UniProtKB/TrEMBL annotation:
Subcellular location(s) per record: Cytoplasm
Positions annotated to bind S-adenosyl-L-methionine: G38, G39, Y40, D56, F83, D99, Q106
GO cellular-component term (any): cytoplasm
Identification of the protein by name: Ribosomal RNA small subunit methyltransferase H
Lineage summary: Bacteria, Pseudomonadati, Pseudomonadota, Alphaproteobacteria, Rhodobacterales
A Pfam family annotated for this UniProt entry: Methyltransf_5
Organism of origin: Pseudooceanicola algae
Xref: HAMAP family: 16SrRNA_methyltr_H
The protein's enzyme class: transferase
Amino acid sequence: MSDPETGRAPHVPVLLGPLLQAVAPVAGTWLDGTFGAGGYARGLLEAGADKVIGVDRDPLAIEMAQPWASDYGDRLQIVQANFANLDEVATGLDGVVLDLGVSSMQLDLAERGFSFMRDGPLDMRMSQDGPSAADFVNEMSEEDLADILYLYGEERASRRIAKAIARERAEGPIATTGQLATIVESCLPRARPGQSHPATRSFQGLRIAVNDEYGALAEGLMAAERALKPGGALAVVTFHSIEDRMVKRFFQMRTGGTGRANRYAPEAEEEVAAFTQKTRKGIGADEAELSVNPRSRSARLRVGFRTKSPAEEIDRAAMGMPGASKAGKTSKGRKGRRG
């Protein structure tokens, strides 16, 4: 998958080279928890994996893989599922790869309702079931909608935008991406050349809420810990600061660190290391990749290797998940919000 709101550029696996280098030698059975267009799965198979299990909650991803998946025979297995439950798909894995965000094929289809760049129904559901973005926008309270835009989209004008949405929906349902983008634009200054579209943060926050992406990430990291065998690799590619913070703190807690959210928090008991890391720094794209794939500019790769220590549950708030605790939501979602 790839960075949200990137336009019509074809899918290119971001940081695939650095990922393969970080986990080399590639062998055994791997699970690609965000299968998408299959770029990472194919890269792993061509690098030496005996088998790759591709997991995606979007039925379209499964359908689009059918013309080429048979080229790999029984080395490639594709399963429709949420990577939050990946340990229910397979265990004893040699590696797990997660490439977070929304796929370019989802953005390019107006009828999926992910992008403000092309008008379509306000949907945004990766699994194509459950409440849609239109349901959230038209039925959620103004206060809760503002919290979503702020906590998940990091939109500082969230109150102003939520108020405008409430005012507009009182006149009639907000049904399309174009309608919502116009409302958001009316609340913010016009973007200067080189700046992102004014609706970027709001669409990101709404999409993340509709698909419970942060909840899935928290559960998926813990599921990967349960599914990996000793020595197995967990590689995660993120595209924005909140996701990267969650992955970074997960590894901090599970490599024997305290995982404290801030220096004022009470000292936590030292955790038994469930992972080791060759480097704690996130890996970014080099100039060569940036020149051919601009989407990689915000991408960060973090990799850990499983030890023999038992898997454990982790507190979502300590992992840095927005809104995971009422206290965190109050202090950040209300007192700190402008607009």
